[in-house]
Amino acid sequence: MDAYSEMGGGALYLQYKGVWDMQDLYEFIASFFSGKKFKFYEKKYITKHPSPFGPETYYIWEAKRDVEEYYRYMCTIFLHTYDTQDVEVVGKDGSKKMFTKGRLWIQIQTKVVLDYDKRWDETAFYKSLKNFYTKYVMKKKIEGLYWDNMYYNVHLKLHSLIKERLKLESEGFEHRYFNKMR
After folding, report:
1. Total domain count for the chain?
2. Is residue 172 assigned to a domain?
């Protein structure tokens, strides 16, 4: 893989200990991506046998959006729950609902993938042409437009919205009123 085939930033992390609605969190993240016209996939779901502290569950979710023929937005979410147990919570109106109590660790990684169909990797000439095109013609556009759009409108926004959903301490998203991705 050449140096200009994908561009991404570091991962964002969330750690949470308490009670949350796992079904609501899953549906919220899936609806976030469908609202931004991403295709959402659950890549892996692994449950380990319970230890004395409770079962461990790994989720790997992936969202893709083909923006143009040359580049694609990708987001990978790794969610790890451990020490979990189901608890019944009574709402303010007296209704009962099952929630999850335990610890939650979330990692969000996003990247922009260039030439995702590998159309320009057929011959050595096409590969060098792709490297030239990406390095000298498209580099500023990729860094300044494509990646920034992905970073602020998906990466940071999803991180902030999950924090709000879990009612973590730092609620709010400083880039909320930036340009919206369509």
Report:
1. 1
2. no
Instruction: Tell me if residue 175 falls in helix, strand or coil.
Output: coil
pTM of the shown model: 0.82
- Tokens in use for 107? 């990692």
Q: pLDDT for 68-123, tens place per residue?
A: 888 889 999 999 998 888 888 888 888 888 899 999 999 999 988 888 888 888 88
pLDDT tens per residue, range 115-168: 888 888 888 898 888 888 888 887 777 777 777 888 888 888 999 899 988 888
Residue 181 included in any domain = no
Partners of residue 104 on adjacent β-strands: 16, 81
Length of the chain: 182
Of the CA atoms within 13 Å of residue 134, those in its CB half-sphere come to 20
Distance CA 102, CA 84 (A): 4
Q: Do residues 163 and 16 lie in contact, with contact meaning Cβ atoms separated by under 8 Å? A: no
SS3 for 44-61 is EEEEEEEECCEEEEEEEE
Give the domain extent around 156: 10-165
